[in-house]
Amino acid sequence: MxxxxxxxxxxxxxxxxxxxxxxxxxxETKFEASSGGGAVKAVVNGDQELLEIKINRDAFDIDxxxxxxxxxxxxxxxxxxxxxxxxxxRLMGITGGFNIPGF
Length: 103
Hints:
Elements: H1 5-28, E1 30-35, E2 40-45, E3 50-55, H2 65-95
């Protein structure tokens, strides 16, 4: 049985470059979620960084601030979950299902 370390290293470098390319694409991708029937909108990128929050002031009662806080949390969590799922899906496609630490 002949094992070619040089070929393995070449393939590992190709996988690494592809992962870096996908991560850069994800960094530039925006994921949007809303709650309260569109009263609150949150936008995050592929690094799960919060980029934007929009609140429709006509959609909530200023006396019910707790409801607004809940809607913000729901929208942000949903946007982050979308980002995580897309990242996981794309990176698993590259690694063939192997979980590589740090990616």
